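Course assignment 3, question 2. Fill in each field.
Student: A.L.
Task: Predict the tertiary structure for the chain below.
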Amino acid sequence: MATSTSLTQSKKVGLTAFLTKDAVRDQINKVVGGKDGQRFVTAIISAVNANPQLQECDNSSILSCALLGESLKLSPSPQLGHYYLLPFNDKNRGKVAQFVLGLTL
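Answer field:
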């Protein structure tokens, strides 16, 4: 219960602070693995910093999209174009990130 509560109360803090919370970090390490956890966090922060509109999005939606990309073994790097985190307005949740699969040739 404590994990889900801290994951949903993500709008109040910046992305870096959100991703370094114990509950979030533990969840990332369970899904991604401890060794790749830091690489994963760095990639997310880099992708969000490249798009100022993403910084306004709900942190849990950003994490959700990034975990989906990680499960597909894709990188969120805009330069690689594997997938994109795009901001969308949701009537109920406000601004959220949406996973969009990229086209690599």
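Instructor remarks: The two ends are 43 Å apart (CA to CA). The beta strands are 83-90, 94-101.
Grade: pending
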